[in-house]
Amino acid sequence: MTCTRISNRLNIHFCILVLVFLVSACGNKKPLADFTVSPTKVKLGQEVIFKDNSTNANRYLWNFGDGIERNDQREQKYAYSVPGTYTAVLTVWNKKEKKESSATKSITVEPPTKDDVIGVWYYYFVQDVKQWETFTDKSTAINEARTNQVYAFDRMDYYAGDPDTFSLNINNYGTNILYWLWELNGGDLIFKDTLNDKEYKYNIVKMYNDEMILRDKKKEGFDRLFYFKR
Prior knowledge:
- By secondary structure, this protein is mainly beta.
- It has 2 helices and 16 strands.
């Protein structure tokens, strides 16, 4: 009887150990990273939605391919401010955080074209920010707070016989009209004051949904954003 009881207890302990091992093994499965991107081709400043579809993961690290990272959220919304092709990476870990897996997706951010810029834009707000990546896009919320300053980006086909020359007519509060030239260089909008022989370069960080945001990089440690609306 005693040997039988000992044997039964050993069997019980063995079963418990096996069960603990199985539970531990099941709870520590290798993760498999996977995610979707929508859309995969966007304009400057257009929001991209990243959704996690990973399995056996409970920690998440997103890298958007432009040096910006975010973590521990299964869904992210992000807007690129520089044209180009980016490789986004999602890295996930399991519960024990000892095993990891990564997946990649490609996103294309289209540069603005001259046809995107041509037309009338209403300037209505300026904002100082430390960096584009951490600022709050206020363009939708303050669309009604426009000034009377109007920028008309026109084509000047007759200027020096050059069909690719463009003029910028600035109507300031319905009075003075200034005539400048402008050109595009990738994601930069360059204003040329031909009268005073000066040049001003701005980064277009948003050209989407009839909204344009220009960034002027300052040396004082902040950027200045200029908001426009069609």
